[in-house]
Amino acid sequence: MASIRDIAKEAGVSPATVSRVLNQDKKFSVRSTTRQRVMEVVRKLHYDPREHHEMVQSLPHRDREIIVLCSLTSSQETRDLYFATIDEGIHDEAATLAIKIGAFVRFPNPNFDYQIVSKFDGVIIIGTFSERFLNSVYRCNRNLVVVDEYRYFDQFDLVRNNYHAETERALNMLYPQGHRQIAFIGGAINRMEKAGITGEQITDIRTTAYLNWMQIHRLRSKNLTTDWSTHEGYQAMEEILDSNTIPTAVVVASDQLAIGAYRSIQLHHLVIPEDIEVVSFNDSQVASYLVPSLSSVHAPSNEMGRAAVRLLLDRWRNRRTVPWQVVLPSKLVARESTVANN
């Protein structure tokens, strides 16, 4: 029998969209053409919602309800598709498994009561929170999964990508091309608390990987840590290009920062990649549309969200108490901003 995921793949939509169309969710806004396309695929694949309902009713997790806590505001998530896609993956997998997302809380939220998480069967946290916040949530609900967390915790499940290794891969791609003056633009990782960011920053794994790699190769590092906006990427690149030594390559921690860096490079009448090569992270849609197209590391962010839901499912099914750490592989997509684009 066809599944909701099969229908979603055929129709080119998310499983959550299929689920809401089939359930005739009146609160769900979707184009009539999309709704029609979904129903056409339903008929084509001979999908019987009654069989799906019976299957769901037989699942031991059918009545499970989870809460999602996110360190990003809606506007921040809209600007950063990496986190938006993690969010989408959580919703898609929950819809596929008939798990209800009972609450989605964004921070800062000074009035948040930790005890509320005890009312749910599981908790998924997106983003970087303080140790105190994480431990407070864990004390109220031990079915906890944290997504995009790179510190070590031995109490709860973690889902992350391998950006550290991919930073090294990017540098190893540049090195044989003769690059020795390699700059780095990174973003600040702030710890979120209930009332707002704590002011304590965590060194991003891309920055750590860059500094270690440069030290191993006995090269002088030139790294700037800034905010994650396009403007900050522009300002950081301006500072680098106004220095005495102009780099021949730059690694940038996100596509959003890289857009600003591109603008600065072009205003200095430098040509990418002939004068300076650029490698970025997140492989957002804009990367392939920049001129020249941007080499960027693709992260499986949707699968990271899905994996978080699956980890909760495993805890429920198997009564697992030993925490798991899931590392999903990323991939460098080389394009025109690097010479070695093949």
UniProtKB/TrEMBL annotation:
Keywords: DNA-binding, Transcription, Transcription regulation. The lineage of its organism: Bacteria, Bacillati, Bacillota, Bacilli, Lactobacillales. One of its GO terms (molecular function) is DNA-binding transcription factor activity. It holds the Pfam family Peripla_BP_3. The keyword Endoplasmic reticulum does not apply. CDD domains: HTH_LacI, PBP1_GalR. Gene3D superfamilies: 3.40.50.2300, lambda repressor-like DNA-binding domains. Residues 2-58 form the HTH lacI-type domain. This is Transcriptional regulator, LacI family. PANTHER family: HTH-TYPE TRANSCRIPTIONAL REGULATOR EBGR (PTHR30146:SF149), LACI-RELATED TRANSCRIPTIONAL REPRESSOR (PTHR30146). Coiled coil: none annotated. PROSITE patterns: HTH_LACI_1, HTH_LACI_2.
